[in-house]
Amino acid sequence: MATEKFVTAINCIDGRSHRPVLNWLKASFDAEFVDRITEPGADKALAGGSADVLEAGRRQGACRRIGGRA
């Protein structure tokens, strides 16, 4: 039985970049599904070394499932 391959994208909540990022991840990592963590200012939080914004988003259910998992 083949296993499903997932990758995760951490992205700003602004939807303009979502499709290009998902397409790039699928092509670059030969993934079937992309899990998304979307949060305002995610790029700044990652660049600044602070995970507070992302942790708050995780607690609030900011992780969006795409594909075969709910």
Verbal overview:
The chain is an alpha+beta fold. 37% of the residues lie in helices and 20% in strands. It is built from three helices and three strands, in the order βαβααβ. The chain has a three-stranded mixed beta sheet with strand order 1-2-3. The longest helix is centred in the middle third of the chain and has 12 residues, at 18-29. The protein is globular, with a radius of gyration of 13 Å. The two termini are 21 Å apart. The relative contact order is 0.24. The model is unreliable at 62-70 (pLDDT under 50).
Morphology: globular
Helix content: 25-40%
Rg of Cα set: 13 Å
**How much β-strand is present in the residues?**
15-25%
Main sheet: strands, sense, barrel? 3 strands, mixed
Low-confidence sequence ranges: 62-70
Order of helices and strands: EHEHHE
Task: Report strand order across the widest sheet.
Answer: 1-2-3
Structural class: alpha+beta
End-to-end C-alpha gap: 21 Å
Counting DSSP H or I runs of 4 or more residues, the number of helices is 3
User: What's the count of strands?
Assistant: 3
Rounded mean pLDDT is 74
